Amino acid sequence: MIDKLHQQFFIEISTRKNKTTIRLFPGTDPDKTDGVKMALGLTVKIIQEIYSDFKITRTDIGKFLLSE
């Protein structure tokens, strides 16, 4: 997917004892286009491929989480 809007943003991954949060870094604050949400979904997919026990407990981007 290619957005017509050019944006730069960081995806932040922070981990605590029993919780990992994947989100847009607040300092970049891009428009939440489908392309930005897809980038988050792809990040989750990569993490799930590496860590098979990784579970999603809460999300705002459900339709952008890619499953095979």
Query: Helical percent range?
Result: 25-40%
User: What class, by secondary structure content?
Assistant: alpha+beta
Helix/strand order: EEH
Mean pLDDT metric: 88
- Determine the number of helices (DSSP H or I, runs of at least 4 residues): 1
* Shape descriptor: globular
The largest sheet has its strands arranged as: 1-2
Uncertain stretches of 5 or more adjacent residues = none
Q: For the report, how would you describe the main beta sheet?
A: 2 strands, antiparallel
Strand-residue proportion: 5-15%
Number of strands: 2
- C-alpha end-to-end distance: 18 Å
Computed Rg = 12 Å
Structural account:
- By secondary structure, the protein is an alpha+beta fold.
- 25% of the residues lie in helices and 15% in strands.
- The protein is built from one helix and two strands.
- It has a two-stranded antiparallel sheet.
- β1 and β2 (20-24) form a beta hairpin.
- The longest helix has 17 residues, at 34-50.
- The two termini are 18 Å apart.
